[in-house]
Amino acid sequence: MARTRLIQAVHDAVVEEMARDPKVIVYGEDVELSIVGDLRGVHEQFGHDRIRNTPISETTLTGMAVGLAAAGYHVVVQMMFANFFYTGMDAIANQMSKLRLMTGGQVELPITVIATIGGGSANAAQHSDTPYPMLMNLGGLNVAVPATPADAKGLVKTAIRSRNPCFVLEPNGRGGESGEVPEGEHLVPFGKAAVRREGGDVTVVAIGRMLKPALAAATALDAEGVSAEVIDPRTLVPLDYAAVLASVGKTGHLVVVDEARECCSAASQIAAVVAEQEFSLLKGPIRRVTTPNVAIPYAPNAEAHVIPGEARITAAVRRALGRTQPVPA
Fold this sequence. Notes:
Blueprint: E1 2-5, H1 6-20, E2 24-28, H2 42-46, E3 51-53, H3 58-70, E4 74-81, H4 89-96, H5 99-102, E5 111-117, H6 132-136, E6 142-144, H7 149-161, E7 166-171, E8 178-181, E9 194-197, E10 202-206, H8 211-222, E11 228-232, E12 235-237, H9 241-251, E13 254-261, H10 266-277, E14 287-291, H11 300-306, H12 310-320
Parallel strand pairs: 2-3, 2-4, 4-5, 5-7, 6-7, 10-11, 10-13, 13-14
Antiparallel strand pairs: 1-8, 6-12, 9-11
């Protein structure tokens, strides 16, 4: 294995798939320059016929993706920030998510949309949302949220090879972090969660960028005699509910950490499924750690206050276990 930055892992995945399949094409706003950094140098390697800049019009980006995919191309759209989904939403909601069903499977839409989600970089309210609940609600779209470079590469490659629209959402502010990435062909299946840390007292489901503070909280809780199992869903559609339920069956307690806003969050969906399907497994209330229902502030200290972090996760675990204060081991 080699240590690779997350944005480099995304780059490598796209390059490998473009080399493998001449039908893979890439476009986006300033994608030739690659402001995000994940596609830097791809234009020089594959040329203007397969990677090109577009106007600053997300409606054009998403609508064009539907047409190109229906015509037989494997489309990769770099949307930069997930907030831009809002302005490209008509084609996402009314075409991408529905055309395969509406045509009885006659039209396939192999589209991969890549964008960054979340705060942490002081990009202000219009560039810091975590809107995957909106995508989850549509049906017909796969949603991947990698938290590690290895998963970023493997999920991007799986998305590009899929016959259905896939959204791969990069954690904002984490692109420069490095991790081990397997060499050679590396695919990560959709719908298969990863247990990042084993434990027996409480299950912590941490989505995307929330994995790092969740693991830090689990380490801190060790000093209090609390053994936390940390699960990384990796994909939200499809979501590996079986892995979550198996862990809750072992621990009896569940905390879900989600950077999306509290109302209608992915955390809400996970909590609802566990409560509905296996309520008898629970020894106490499910706890959610989410972003409040507010716009993400620009000021770094205010932004850090609303986004879930290690302290809030640790406090939520204590509450789930019926503790109000740290208890020495």
